[in-house]
Amino acid sequence: MAQLNVFLPDDLQRWADARAVEGGFSSTSDYICDLVRRDREDAEKLVALRAAIDEGLASGVSDRTIEDIIADRRKRDGLA
């Protein structure tokens, strides 16, 4: 495992220590690791969302009405 030293202003250190305790982490280091892990996951989700948006924009405009779409979905779900 790699080691990283981070210097925080006193107020941020106290805040991080308190959040670690409140969150049930065994240490402030574990809390910081969790923050970085969640940030990475959020970044990956954002990349996927942007790709889905680009795909949707590239697919063009449909001539189907909302009623057509709902009817097709109901047929697919066995509701119609």
From TrEMBL:
SUPFAM superfamilies: Ribbon-helix-helix. Transmembrane segments: none annotated. It holds the Pfam family ParD_antitoxin. Coiled coil: none annotated. InterPro entries: ParD, ParD_sf, Ribbon_hlx_hlx. Keywords: Toxin-antitoxin system. It comes from the Bacteria. The keyword Cytoplasm does not apply. This is Type II toxin-antitoxin system ParD family antitoxin.
